[in-house]
Amino acid sequence: MITPISQQKPWLPYLVAGIGIVISFLLWHFILWHHIEAYLDALLPYKSYLSWLMLLLGVSFSILAGAIIRIIQLDYERTALLNQMQTMLKKEIAERMLAEESKQKLEVALLQGQKLQAIGTLAGGIAHDFNNILYAIIGYTEMLREDEDVNSLKYNNLGRVLEATQRGRELIARILAFSRKQHHEFDMIDLNHTIETALSLLKPTIPASVMVQFESSKDISIVGNQTQIHQVLVNIINNAVDAMEGEGTITIHTTHLPPDDPLLKQLTKTSIQKYCKLEISDTGHGMDQATMERAFEPFFTTKEVGKGSGLGLSIVHSIIKEHKGEILLNSQLGHGTTFTILLPECLS
Q1: pLDDT, greater one: 310 or 86
Q2: 344: helix, coil or strand?
Q3: pLDDT digits over 141-164, tens only?
Q4: For a surface tag, which of 42, 97, 264, 299 has the fewest beta carbons within 10 Å of its beta carbon?
Q5: Rounded distance between C-alpha atoms, residue 289 and residue 332, angstroms
Q6: Eight-state DSSP code of residue 47
Q7: CATH number, domain 106-178
């Protein structure tokens, strides 16, 4: 808040005017009571009015000086107030633009969530029906194998059928996980320890040319399912390895979020007061805007046929939502990808 100059020194005009008036009276007294006629021969016709004339001029100039100072003060005050109003207006415009941007992002997130929920419900129903069909195929195939010699060609071919059905069952399990048809128990877990455990399990499968860096804040506890958090890390890290074509750096970072962090504006209104942030970045080829918009859609993949089902990131999205969190994606072609995951912390 800017304090107007007139409020900083409101007495200044009156002080100047008062001093001027006092000096005028002193000059008037000096002229009136001291004999200086010898020095004022040129003003002889006005000698009797000289003292009063000097008093009048002194008082007039004093009042004029005070008025000028007051006008200058008011001008500075008006300028300061205009600058303050301009600053407040700019701030209000920026806040409204930020609020509108956050509103648009929340609307997009809501639409995406509704779409994922609808697809999940449909996929869950299809998965259950498909699972029943698979059980029938598995049962009849095993019955046929019992009548064949273990070294025969038919026995081996039926074995391949069973292998294919097993892959189908794994796919159904992933679809059911995406559609939230499976129920998991949540406990208080140490996020950093969970990440370290997942990395130790992933390490043998990560190429030696890929460097994994983990930076963490201490004491981050969340209410969640450790197996599901492992699945989140596995899916994102495997995608990162593929995006880097087996060579690059993956950086994992955890930290506490302050209550006023701008990232929290990406969340819908919630009673949760404390969040932590998990960031996973890679140095891969990145994504364009169109790919980013569809990244969490089920069955969408940029990988070659046979190398991906397109359920990895949709399952990740589903898991984070189940943990009452949010996942944000930031990527640019040629500049890598960053997944930012916000998870509610346990209140100590």
Answers
A1: 86
A2: strand
A3: 888 888 888 888 888 888 888 888
A4: 42
A5: 8
A6: G
A7: 1.10.287
Tell me the backbone φ, ψ of residue 261, rounded to 5 degrees. Answer: -65, 135
Query: Which 3 state secondary structure label does DSSP give 238?
Result: helix
Flag whether the pTM goes above 0.70. Answer: no
Average pLDDT, the chain: 78
pLDDT in tens, 236-249: 998 898 888 878 99
- The kind and range of the H/E element at 249 are strand 248-257
Residue 260 reports pLDDT greater than 70? yes
Domain regions of the chain by residue span: 5-97, 106-178, 187-344
Distance CA 282, CA 339 (A): 9
Token digits of residue 39: 């020095």
Measure Cα distances from 315 to 196, 208, 310 in Å.
Answer: 21, 27, 9
- Pull the structure tokens for residue 66: 């005070």
Give the span between the Cα atoms of 338 and 342, in whole angstroms.
13
Q: Does domain 187-344 have CATH number 3.30.750.24?
A: no
Q: Among 137, 116, 130, 167, which residue's Cα sits nearest to residue 319? A: 116
State the residue for tokens 């107030």: 81
Q: Tell me the CA end-to-end span of the chain in Å, nearest whole number.
A: 38
Here the contacts of 232-238 (C-beta below 8 Å, separation 24 or greater) are 232/316, 232/319, 232/320, 232/341, 233/195, 233/198, 233/199, 233/202, 233/280, 234/198, 234/202, 235/312, 235/313, 235/315, 235/316, 236/280, 236/313, 236/316, 236/339, 237/202, 237/206, 237/212, 237/280, 238/312
For residue 224, is pLDDT > 80? yes
Give helix 50-146 / helix 12-33 axis angle, nearest 10°: 170
Q: Please say if the pLDDT value at position 79 is more than 70.
A: yes
Dihedral of the CA atoms 130, 136, 137, 143 (nearest 10)? 170
Place of tokens 């370290």: 196
Locate all alpha helices (DSSP H) within the chain, ordered by sequence: 5-8, 12-33, 50-146, 153-178, 191-202, 226-243, 289-294, 312-322
